[in-house]
Amino acid sequence: MSEFEAHAPVEAPPSEDTAPIGPPAFAPWNDPDEKPLIQFRNVTKRFGDFTAIDDLTIDIYAKEFFALLGPSGCGKTTLMRMLAGFETPTEGDILLDGKNIVPVPPNKRPVNMMFQSYALFPHLTVAQNIAFGLERSKAPKEQVAARVDEMLKLVQLQKFGGRKPHQISGGQRQRVALARSLAKAPKLLLLDEPLGALDKKLRGETQFELMEIQEKTGTTFVIVTHDQEEAMTVASRIAVMDHGRMVQVDTPDRIYELPNSVYVADFIGDVNLIKGKAASHHKDGKVEIHWAEGAPPIVGTPMAPVADGTQCSFGIRPEKVHITKKLPEGKANIVRGKIVDIAYLGNISTYHVKLPTGEIIKAQTSNNRRIERRRFTWDDEVWLWWSETAGVVLTG
Amino acid sequence: MRAGKSFLILVPYLWLLALFLVPFGIVFKISLSDTALAIPPYMPTLDFSAGWAGLRDFLSELDFENYVFLTQDDLYFKAYMSSLGIAIVSTLLTLLVGYPIAYGMANASERYRPMLMMLVILPFWTSFLIRVYAWMGILSNEGFLNQFLLWTGIISDPLVIMNTNKAVYIGIVYTYLPFMVLPIYATLEKLDGSLLEAAEDLGCGRIEAFWRVTVPLSRPGALAGSFLVFIPALGEFVIPSLLGGSSTLMIGKVLWEEFFSNRDWPVASAVAVVLLLILIIPIILFQRNQQAAQEADK
Q1: Is A25-262 a CATH 3.40.50.720 domain?
Q2: Is residue B99 part of a domain?
Q3: Which pTM does this prediction carry?
Q4: Hey, which end of chain A has fewer CB within 10 Å, N or C?
């Protein structure tokens, strides 16, 4: 159980100048001298009455792997299509390297896109597909051929240059699409659900390949995805979107451990949310949340100071909730309940514990040993506890 | 099970046998006969009562005289060539007119597409003959077109279109336009819009994207449409005889005249057999194109 404590979240509520959790190997967004590659300035996009993007401002830095994450209809695809030039913002500017690119047509932008459907030209071979963009830029023939070879090598498809797209597998098509979009060495590569059509195993492998290629080429990647796991794996920063607005833009670990709203906490991973009223602030910034009549209050750490009496939610990830048979001693947040459901997932088990007040709290344990004797079973009375810093207090 | 399968295959073969091979055999046989003042107007005729000897007599009188005759009178060669020319030119014209129509239909909003499709097919609801006659009313020297142009003052003398090859082209383009539009529309409608976006994204302008992506991908449809126009246009008879003039030489017209005016059934049959032989080439090409398109779809 002790390994849970090991990656407990930071003690103090974070602010702009605190370093992200873990070693910040690459964090140009924290460097005030760094100039962003892409700047959205108060961009709004409306389709008739529908506002797809709502007064959005954001900076994306060179060499970032930036993920736009959100449910369908949240505006992430519109945002990407505005970067590619297929949509023009209704209001606001989009700057690339400090220059407004709104009036620049898609074929004149140093931006390439990998389409969700791959959009490979069926009448051209793999090599011709990759050469397509290079030939448009009037590069000499030998140079095009050399670049095509280089790209085929990058995606490990040297033997398939002469095939037509319908003669190769789905995974290979995905690589061709990637190679084609990288061939012109764009300043910015847009990836629209690039792995959506692959099966789960291949997707996992390809995620790492994508990261490798991104590092190797040093290209700035902006990826659109609705798969939070994918975003967490590949991205340097994630922008969680909802109804055309950025709800939170942060590194994957901070998005997970320090969500700024119930929406983000709920969208990324699994979370227990307990509604209550904030009261009795501790000196160290912690707050008590009264969530049920007669039950002891939960002590949690708010992201920002919370006024007494504010309606808020306490959010805690299931893996940070400990489950024991005996009453844990000297712990802050202890509740008692009965196991109503067990989900065995191989590496972890999730227990659904029903409290006397009706709430169901999920607790996770990792299955460290093979064929472990199950410690808990259905209808067992158990204790749940978590440390004061394990969860977050959310007001949004 | 196997018997059932063979039966299924047998049906179309029987159909072909009864409605194509047998009539073709009869026509071929007549083309080998000699003309005669009789009913039917050729000889020999097969006399079954004479038995084997009768069959031998019958076969001994058949010869390729009529085919030799076709090569001697250059009317026929000229008619074939002129038909080929007219068919090729009108096919290209139909493609030129049909492609933009199909393109417009495929790019129209989904709501209007069924209606546009309907409009393309609508002329089939009227008899083909009536529609060609209607063109006579439009194109003649006192026709609607000339009256309109004279009234607007664009021309001072009526245009002579009727009874020239121009009228034949107009007639063929008009009549066969749906056969061109529909296959092209079918390929364009299937075209994935993201392919054009990809082309633009990779540096193509709109027009270049059209030539590099839309045109090659709609080629099977354009080819199919062209064959569907070319094949019937080559043997076309009604349009040249109604809209064309005396100078319009087409093999269909020659065929008709041999048959009904000269009552020379054997020569007419020889003309028909040669026409069919000429058509076999584009028909085979058409079949290949269809097969290739089907395989590409898989």
Answers
A1: no
A2: yes
A3: 0.82
A4: N
